[in-house]
Amino acid sequence: MAITRASRHLVQNEPLIFERSAAGKRGYQLPPLDVPAADLTGLGRLRRDQIADFPEVSELEVIRHFTRLSTWNYGVDTGLYPLGSCTMKYNPRVNEQVARLEGLAQGHPLQPEELSQGALRIMHLLSRYLLEITGMDAITLQPAAGAHGEMTGILMIHALLSARGEARHKVLIPDSAHGTNPATAAIAGYQVQNLRSNARGTVDLADLDRVMTDDVAALMLTNPNTLGLFEEDIHRIADLIHERGGLLYMDGANMNALVGRARPGDFGVDVMHLNLHKTFSTPHGGGGPGAGPVAVKSELEPFLPIPVITAGADGRLRADYDRPRTIGRMRSFYGNFGMFVRALAYIMANGCDGLKQTTEDAVLNANYIRRGLEGAYALPYDRPCMHECVFSDQKQQAHGVSTGDIAKRLIDYGFHPYTVSFPLVVRGAMMIEPTESAGRDELDEFIAALRAIAAEAETEPERVKSAPHTTRLSRLDEVSAARQPILRWRR
Amino acid sequence: MRYLPTSDEIRRQMLEAIGAASIDDLFRHIPEYCRLTRPLNIPRGQSEPEILDFFQGAAAECAPGWASFLGAGAYRHFRPSPIDALISRGEWFTAYTPYQAEISQGTLQAIFEFQTMICQLTGMDVANASMYDGSTAMAEAVLMALRISGREGIVVARSAHPQYREVLNTYVTQRGLAAREIGYLPDGTVDLAALEAALGPDTAAVVVQSPNFFGAIENWEAAAAAAHRHGALLIAVIAEPISLGILAPPAAADIVALEAQGLGIPVGFGGPYAGVIATQEKYLRALPGRLAGEARDHEGRRGYVLTLATREQHIRREKATSNICTNQALCALMAAIFMSLYGKDGLRELAEQNLAKTAFAAQAFAAAGLQVLFPSPRFNELVVQLGPGRAEAALPALSRERIVGGFPLRRYYPELDGAVLVCVTETVPRAAIERLVAAYAPAPATADPRELVSAH
Lengths: 491, 456
Prior knowledge:
The complex is a heterodimer of chains A (491) and B (456).
Chain A: H1 59-70, H2 93-99, H3 102-105, H4 117-134, E1 138-140, H5 146-163, E2 170-174, H6 180-187, E3 191-195, H7 205-211, E4 216-222, H8 234-243, E5 247-252, E6 271-274, E7 294-296, E8 308-311, E9 317-320, H9 337-373, E10 389-392, H10 394-397, H11 403-412, E11 419-420, E12 429-432, H12 440-459, H13 461-465, H14 478-483
Parallel strand pairs in A: 2-3, 2-4, 4-5, 5-6
Antiparallel strand pairs in A: 1-7, 6-7, 8-9, 10-12, 11-12
Helix pairs in contact in A: 2-9, 4-9, 5-6, 9-12
Chain B: H1 8-18, H2 23-26, H3 48-60, E1 67-68, H4 82-87, H5 90-93, H6 105-122, E2 126-127, H7 134-149, E3 153-157, H8 162-173, E4 179-182, H9 192-198, E5 203-209, H10 220-229, E6 233-238, E7 255-259, E8 275-279, E9 292-296, E10 302-306, H11 313-316, H12 329-367, E11 371-372, E12 381-385, H13 390-393, H14 395-400, E13 403-404, E14 407-408, E15 419-423, H15 430-440, H16 449-455
Helix pairs in contact in B: 6-12, 7-8, 12-15
């Protein structure tokens, strides 16, 4: 297939900012000081010499530098970004505009409550909507990211079990889980016990029955799981955990498959986190900031991190610090407030109907891709999927072509790759999540590209294995980079 | 819905292509009892003007345009216009983590530059791509020290940010550990003698912040020497990075936990910000979080990749150095742009302006008969003893002047009841400082009304 979607374009080279620097250039001007100049003698040895090798560049050079760098990136604005489990959806522009309103962008987290009512209202309303969406009872917005939310949730589980006088030492984690789940359990002091998936790609009930002892604090479950499959036995899983005194934690990374269609609070989940940067459209920003609110059932409410936003009878909002059973504080201040503003704007723009339509389109798109690629790539779990589908490179491996090669070749066709080699339960995984933000034309182009690459893998595998061929740089040597790390510029 | 690029007719055709009779078919495998059969109780979708209306109303309730004297870990500095102009490019803010290096060179090079500038500022060898914020950077730095030393004792200056200390406690309580807190001297700095007395063969980490929560500048070298005498690591915490424009970096520290918010990231009700951990080369493998490193491509051209991922959760799972997955890339980018614009001279000049304004404020408070506590050298914060209840009593007067006053210290330091922490950055004009002092100053017992008028 001729590549029609992408073509070459003038791209500027650009050195490091330090290599643009020259003594005496400047990109700033401060207003004249309206008080006497500081007496620096009092600092004595506390004073520093100049900041060696710090940049000296003009404003225009800064603009050109970071503009040129930006053109080497691919974003959701550029095109389909089908990274599985990352939910790379459209980041609405009105979100950015409202987050920059002066009162919100300049407001200080320690401002008196009477000067913070607008900000508290945003947090309170977002909390209410997220509770309605999840079917849970109480929530904290404080965690700064999904993994931080996981840690918050696991610490709350630990606090509840301690309050019950129980010391449990293990957390169960399915083999299809995100790497953050076991890392979180470990950082919270738990032993991790892995749980096998069954032949259908979901939790193996027999295995769960075997390992669910009175030493297990919780099961951390992603639902739908990373194969894009809904855990159909969810109520038996929940019952089994609860009967034996454990709690059910849900990783809400894949909530984009459920909003308006199913609520974790209705199927036995005790604690869950949401990723505002996935389901609720706050931008990924090149790897953050995110936000990972944690919603819980009422039994866990006393353990929420401080502060908790509460409404008085008169409608005045306040931050409540007087919570004796709290796990404490997970982060300074309220959390990533700017992300709350954006997530609330997204929920308001969609409304009840738009949120449900969004979920349906996300699931429709994933099933459309699944059908469109059938035959060209192996499908290890041949079942209807939800918001993402997972293929494998099994057929291409016969020609020495791996999932990583196919991903790189997709770049030549003008697409961001899917998630490579994850989940670990699928050998050579190709994890594709189109989200609702892809229209059918885009999906058709993507399917055609992947089919063309499947054909190339048979006829000219070297072309795939040496891709990408159209980028500024290609196949950076990560092994050498790790062996002799260069992590900063030096003169 | 205006964000969805699909029509009902296209949806129908797609369902047909899949072989589904209706959208409900695609949700049929969700057990019936799990399905939500009513609409969500959320109002209808709203237009852009309606959304703007709501948020403008909320923003108007948050003192927009007021002069602010709040710092305490969140500092208002002027943000040059190129920052938002640049980060508003979709290539920056709508990209994901740069795992695919060929189409992420922009983000990767910017992180590499950020790491370099943080090293130059702090005097450390290596810095990571950023953490959630200063408080979690401090907690993760302590976990890192526990791993490096194999010890379990944690000693923290009580003059470090109280919320940072709360976060640290949350992070370590579950492991059965607790941080031992060391008080401060009458000059506002940590009691180094008491600190050293608390150190022992099981001390993993000594945590000191400078400028500390009271704005006082600590002595890094003395703190490092004390820690090292007992084989412990010094964790230097920096909540106000602008201070590094003028103050000696904690070069003797083992780990630096820094909050980068002051470097061009909006105060924004507390986040998002960017924490950073910087350290010495020898502790590199114990460092949590992402790292960008230089690499060569197959034709030998220079580029950048995420590197040393074998420390991280997506590779190591439960054996990772941390569960952290994201960094705060866009905030780190803001900081990189800010540092590039101000540069070597600008950061120093900015720091000097902060020093000058704060020194002026301290003199003005003293001249008005108010007691300025803690005489040690300070950066851009100072503690003023107003007397119990005075800060609250001054709120109406401050509101009339459109001023957000200082932070009452009573919540975190009961012994400092009546004292406020006042932050004076370069954004506060002299006239606002004078109005703040007037609002806080005790009314003269026999005031001459003419003098009160002329005081304005």
